[in-house]
Every structure is written in structure tokens, then in C-alpha cells.
Amino acid sequence: MQNDYLRQNRQTLNLGIMKVARDLFPGYDLKMAYSIPQGVYCTLSGSMMSEREVDLFQKKLREWAEADSMIEFMQKSKGYYRYQLENTIVKSIYPANTLTSAIGPFRIVPFNGGFIVQFGEFDERQKRPLIYPQKLSATYAKTQKWLHNIKIELVSDVNEYIEENRGGELIGMAEALQEKEISDIADMIIGHCRSVRAVLISGPSSSGKTSFAQRLSTQLRVLGLKPRPLSLDNYYLDRDKMKKEADGSIDYESIDALDLSLLKEHISRLVGGETVSPPVFDFKAGKRSGELAPMRLDPSDILVIEGIHALNPGLLPAFDQNMFFKIYISALFELNVDLANRIPTTEVRLIRRLVRDELFRGTPADDTFARWASVRKGEYEYIFKYQEEADMMFNSSLIYELSAMRPFAEAALAKMPDDSPHFLMKERIENLLSFARPMDASKVPFNSILREFIGGSLYF
User: How far apart are alpha carbons 55 and 273 in whole angstroms?
Assistant: First the structure.
């Protein structure tokens, strides 16, 4: 419940951002382009903003927030919540509070001709400095260029393809783009093959890391390398040795849940040409159950390490960093409902996890929602802070995926009890899905990253 209130507070600030943009820059459309950790990047369509304009924007937004300005909820219609802010009517796909005093702290900083709105407490002594998302921004820009080329910007554009029975064409283009990008990454690794001994693949929950690792490995094989997988999951400490939280629970997202000393030793020995026997972790028993066959890297072999902590510097031995090629993967969904109402990448990953866990892990939607806050906390603490250290970023989102997953997600949500404590999250996801026209997922290729979540993958 707390996360839902936090989201409403931030959505209230988004209403103010829309209003101030209209007041200061009439004739220009505000675009909430994409998320960054604890914030969002915004720009004006067709115009670059100067630092002076960004400073003025922040000043006017703070004045609006601190004045406890009037926000009146009007109605919900066609998936939108409609609010009146003084003389301005703003529509939002998420509910907001009607008191600006509930917004909480924020700051606005210039970035790439627009600005970043960052949420949360800030220490002026820079204990929490803003890490400018240069590589993340470049990855978004690359996807935006492709979307511009095929003339798709909004969810409604995808809906048109489906309504015109051209869903297969849409799937083909999206999958072709990902295959090309994976092939390009494999070429980059080959270009450094004399020094690279290990590929590290990291990303937040439900990014498609496992399928991506398999598809990249296939491309590397085509180019003459022999990928050798090393699973971080097998290096968990026995459950009785893991550090407990204050409430007695175990934080499986923490890097401290891994046997780091053994993991670093094995990586060091492998890239050094020695032989190791990786452990096997039994998740049901919560402890190690033996060892895998002895493993050694031959000259044509390359180690492929996939897991949420793969980019954490604490994972790597003190070797020449040129030996490691680092890849960050996430579902950086880029379609908006309209220019001012973006679909957060977090929501797309939550829907992926919701569908996968209900279909294949026996986890009902209620349990997925209950766990999500802990998952998100782990991402902020252990994953997002290292994303800009990647050599390459890969966007695993697919422009058709909301339409393909809608029937699966709605079926899972329909099983939730009426008195669920996560009713607001259910309502939020259902409302978001309502904007995407459902499509038949049978045409999704069997090597697609989406198959990791809806089933039928040739890798599992």
C-alpha cells in the first residue's frame, strides 16, 4: 500500500509538471520521455531547453507545489483520470493526490536539452550525487530513432497494426531489431576477443537476462567462440548462513547472499586458465547439493556470467578490466499512451514477472505484488547504481509486448481475491493494459525474449 501512495504523490508532481509546461511554453508539447533511477527525463517536443529555462521551470513548479495549489478530480473516463488545476485540465493514466503538500522533495536538473526530475531526499554535500544517465540516454535515443523510422510513437500506433491484421509484421520488425543488436554486440566482443575472457550480463528483475545470454551465446558460436555459462545462482550461501533482516526474512537480492570469496576465486582461476568445479545450489533445500563437472576455459572459450550482480565491482577479481565485457540489459519500454503519459519501464517488467510467475512458478499475482517492493529496493541498492559502468546496454523491450501479454496478465489478475491488500496495484495494471489492444501471441518466435515470460521458449 505504501508504494501506491508514493506513486500517487509522484503523479501529483507530474500533474504540476504538465501544468507549468503549458503555462511557460504554450504551443509546445511536454514529453515525459523515459525513467531513470528515482526520476524521469522530460523534454519539450521540437525545442531544446536552456539551463535558464530549466531553472525557471523549477522555480515555477516549486511555487505551485508550496502554495498548496488546488487540484480537483473531475472524473475517470476511457482509462484517464482527469484533474483541473486552476484554469488547466490535465489527464493522467494514474491517480494523483489533490493536495500538493503530499508531493515530497524533488529537484530538477538540466540534461540533454531537457531536464531530469529526481524524487527523494537530497544531501547538498552530495552524499547522493546524481549519476547522469549518459549511456542509458544513448540507448533510449537509439530506440527512439528506430521508432521514428517506422513511424511508431504511441501505444495507439501499435493498436493500428493489430486492428489492420498486421501484427505479424510488427512482431517481425521488433524481433529483427533485437537480433541485429545482439549480433552487433557479438561482433564487438569478437573485436576484443584477444583480451576478453568473460562476458558479464546484468539487469533488473524480468529484463530477459537468461534468454539474452542464450541468444548472445548463439551469435558467439556462429563467430567461432565457445561460450561457457557460469550461473551466479549456484553461488548462493546455504540459507542458514545468510544474513537475516530485522523481521527475520532473508534478502535474496543482496550481493551478501552470495559466497563472494568462492565466486571471485573461481572467476580468477577460470580466466587464468585453471580448472574449477562450480557448486550446485538446491533452491528447494536452501543449500548446496554438490558440484558441476570440472570446468576450464580453452583459448576459444569465453565465460558468460549472468545475474543481477554481474556488474557489481565486488564480484570481480583484481584482474585487467579489459578481460571483462560488461552488458546491462533492461526492458526500456519507450511507447507512451500520449506524450505526457509515459508507460514506466518498471510496470512493463512487473507485468512480465506477473505473467511468468503465475504461469510457471505457481506464484499468484498477490504474492508477486507483495514481493515487488523488496525486489525494487534491491534494484536501487545493488543494480541501478552500476548500469553506467556497462560497456554496452541492451534494450530488451518489444513494442508489441503489452498487447501480447495482456490476455495472460488479465487472466492472472482475475484470480486475485476481491479483498486483496494489493487491490490498488491490480487496478493500476488493469488500467494500463486497457490502452493496449490484445493480440494473438502464437506468432511470437520461439527464441524471442518474450517467450521467457509467456512460455514456449526453445531455451527452457
Answer: 55
DSSP H helical segments within 252-335, as ranges? 260-271
Alpha helices in 231-338 (DSSP H): 260-271
What cell was used for 159? 493498436
| Residues 356-405: tens digit of each pLDDT | 999 998 899 999 999 998 888 889 888 998 999 999 999 999 999 999 99
Please enumerate in sequence order all residues whose Cβ is within 8 A of that of 169, keeping only pairs 6 or more positions apart, or say none.
Answer: 161
Helix (H) or strand (E) run with residue 55 in it:
helix 51-66
Give CA separation, 244 vs 147, 238, 256, 288, 382, in Å: 46, 12, 11, 19, 17
205: its cell numbers: 528483475
Measured CA to CA, the distance from residue 441 to residue 322 in angstroms comes to 41
Model pTM above 0.85? yes
CB 187 within 8 A of CB 223: yes
* Interacting residues of 423 by C-beta distance below 8 A, sequence separation 6+: 416
* CB contact at 8 A, 130 and 118: yes
| CB-CB contact of 64 with 16 (8 Å) | yes
Let me know how many helices (H) and strands (E) the chain has, helices first: 12, 18
